[in-house]
Amino acid sequence: MLPFAAAALTPVVYRVLGERTAYYAAAVALACFGMVASQLGTEGPVSFAWIPSLGVSLRFYVDGLALLIGFLASGVGVLILTYSGGYMHHEPGKAKYYTALLAFMGSMLGVAFAADLVSLFVFWELTSLSSFILIGHYSDQRSSQYAARKSMLITVSGGLFMLIGFLLLANTVPAPHAFDLAWMVEHPAEVHEGLVEAGMLLPVLSLVAIGAAAKSAQVPLHIWLPNAMEAPTPVSAFLHSATMVKAGVYLVGRFRPILLPEGVHGIPEWSLLFTVLGLVTMTVAAILAVAATDIKELLAYSTASHLGLIIAGFGFASELGAETGAFHILNHAVFKAALFLVAGIIAHEAGTRRIAHLGGLGRDLPVTAAITVVAALGMAGVPPFNGFYSKEFLFDAAWHAAEAAGGLAWLYPVVAVFGSVFTFLYSVKFMMLFFGEKPEGLGHVHRPPAVMLVPPAILGTIAALIGLGGVTSSLHLAPAPLDHFVGEVVGSVLPPGAEHEPFHYHLPDHVTPPAVMSATTIALGAAAYPFYDRLHDGINRLLSVDPLRANWWYDNAVFGLNDASVAAIPRIQTGLLRTYATWTLAAVTALALGGYAAASVPLPAFEGLNPSMTYPILLVLLVAAVGAVAVSVAPSHVAGVLTLSILGFMVAVFYVLASAPDLALTQLVVETLSLVIFLLVLDRLPSFYGEMNRGRAIRDGALSVAVGATVFVTVLLSTAAHPDSIASHFTEPAVTVKKAGGHNIVNVILVDFRGFDTMGEISVIAMAALSVLTLIAMRERGEIQ
Questions:
Q1: Most exposed: 87, 245, 416, 429, by fewest CB within 10 Å?
Q2: Is residue 728 part of a domain?
């Protein structure tokens, strides 16, 4: 809760600290990092009651995966907020910016540690909301507005699919644990068995996959991520490399032990879905990154590609797959956050982000160049840099899956190598911006302030140390420092109690299929790099064919809906009460009858009139029926209202005959008042209806029959039920007389048991009366016409 409390105070703090609010926010992030670090070595849930009637709690759970995401959200947050102190120096809206960043960090920590499905969904949507504000930071720019709307539409829509999956999942889990994600993680066999028996495994798996794909920019939902680069660079570094986009892969890792049963060989539903999705995204996004013309666009497509690598890793039903996903979450966050901050330095100091206008930056920015070399080669998967090791795990997992399944599964290692070749190409291209000759027009580039240089230097150092750990481990000089922690993360994405080897990464010490795949990737990438510009131009020519671009489909769908809305408004918003009543009643009727049919609700038999019905009551009903027919044939407004009032008065007489004088009195008062008001209003309207279109009359008649049928069926269904009665509680003298001090049940309920409700109704009437009196007074003074 600390980030949310700090976010609420940020506007006030900004009035006092001004530009130094960045360091206030960084201090909050550092405190969060310390609290996350305090949980190292612990595991288990903590719960606070939220909606006890539904078994929903603010329940949180600590394990390796939660700690990893928590460290990234808070640790990278410290560096990004510090960096912002220099980058946002002359930018507008800084109070809003730091408020939204802190709220986002709190939301991401909530996602990481949430152990209740409802809590997870709430924090999940809060990340979408806060990222919408951050992506649309430059709210006066159309491109920023477009990017924010696109990200919100795709990620929130994906979240709604995920919510449906959560509800289906909760419906198959035993009642005390319906929404308890921590219990599901600890008892995956029971959950999986329940899903299979209910036939819900594939629906839940697909819906959760849609939510994860939308948040982690998987093909074809990747299109929001490049546009999100309209946000300030620190936002891109924080949300779109280390945190927000990691929410989707976190979700896949969290549900992996639940939906992927232990001991499954071959290609189960989980593996087929996520492995294919991840490898396709990894390859397509890498190709699009080669086509990029802007450094942040290149990094955006690169992010989608590496997220695909993580998804593919989690998709493989092996321990190697778990190691791939867990380790690459960390590696990617480190080198990609560093590269985004480098991109910010380039844009800030060189004044451009166009790849064609950049080059030879290393002479003016030597420290930044060193950081870029370490991070870019890690992104390329070149040994001994950090990204190499997790990509080696991917190659190993793909090879073993192909060996086990055979057939088309051999496409796994082939596609993994093919996509990695493009990864190598764009990574080297980014690195080469610091080498070679400067383009014409690019003058001296000033060195960035220390506050902008230190955060990427720290991230670059961490990336270098991870890579160095693999070297020292290979030489048996010292174990890699992250082995134990990453092992804890791997254990949290495997079924509980599953035996697995201790996590260990090192350089290859003999020829293996993964080593050959890595060498092939580097060799092909090095051979293709001299033709980078040709590949770049060729891919862009291919993308000029509209149907081949996912954005073309998105824009046509969204703007097509806009056009449809514009065309539909004149037909729907006609200004006629008849039109609005028609749409409303038709929709309610269709939903009600459709709901009964979809639920296969049995229609109880209609027994007709009660044999014990008295003649006076029968006479009243006949008069009411005659009045109803008279309303439909009335020649004028006045005649229609007068015949309609017959129905109301007959209802009052019916209450009298049924020994309900209170209700009869209320009905008489309401009916009389309604009749008087109608007649007063009708005095201002024409006396006759005029000519009526026959088609409209037929439509209205059919609609009235449908509404009557809906009411009839609803009454039959509701009166056939036998719900638990609470009437006996109110008829007890100990309640009505002693506690409430009254003998009339209706009055006791209205005054005592519904006191606040009645007071609210009275307050509404009083406010409406005051508004009417105010308008009358203003009109008399000539202030309104």
A1: 429
A2: no
